[in-house]
Design brief:
Length: 328
Amino acid sequence: MIRRFASRLLLLTACLVAVPGEASAQGALAFHDVSGRVMLFDAISLDLIDGLPMGGEVRDVTVSPDGRYAYVASRARARVSIDSTGSSILVFDLWRRSLETVFDLGAFTPTKGLRLNRRGTRLWVPAEEDGSILELNAQNGELLMIWKTGTELNHRADVTPDDRRLYVANILDDVVTVIDRQRVYAASIRTGTAPADVNVSPDGFEAWVANSGSHTITILSVRRDRKLADFFAGALRPVRLQFTPSGREVWVLHQGSPEITIFHAFKREQVGRVVLPGVPSDILFSNDGLRAYVTLPTRVVAVDTETREVVRTFERAADRGFGDWRGQ
């Protein structure tokens, strides 16, 4: 079932003191660590730059295609000067190091899986309530649509390059929901057990699914909405997967295993493995695909995608204040 919603979300604006540090980069890569701090990496130098401390529970973060804005999903009130007590999307201007605006989500609670389209004009927010996917105007926070998946819990989502279809991993229902935005309908495709993540290939032909319960990867045809393949994920409990920017490889993270398994996207076979100094929780590639940034419990590591070796480590300094990090 799909329900349209036409009202505008309340927009609240405020200032945040600019974070001191390096000169503003022309864009950044961003994700959050387990302590709830948003980590920023310069998109050009790939160095760590000062993060943006959040209060409450940060659920996810994504960056606009031009690298200027970071969208942070917060489950509770953030420690910034805003009049908001519920869940919200905080929009930071990364060039100015300031809080641009806040999209108040009202009664909706975001889960993991914030997703922007390639043009940075639409933002999709998986919510806990009734299997909802909120579609927002990324510039002003207007709520354009509430998509209903009819499942219990949406975990992560992705969108095809043409914005026509959304793929939503429903971890408790063992299905991926396909939402056709043009024809305004939703349908479910059964995958393996407990699908935790879904990622659409850069060419828009396939969607790969990490099934954490059955330890498998499922490949779906975008054109035909059917299953193309199922195979072992290379290790137990795959919970996160990501295509490289070139689309040639898929990197798979596993819960409880300090490694990444790497698959050839066209041959659908494992071609490599990265051994890590801890269990990974998230991954982000630099735009040129030369580095993969991987979050671990107490550090972030940079992996060379050619040699598949850790080339730099950013560790949290336990003897310093909340969220302080240093590079090695």
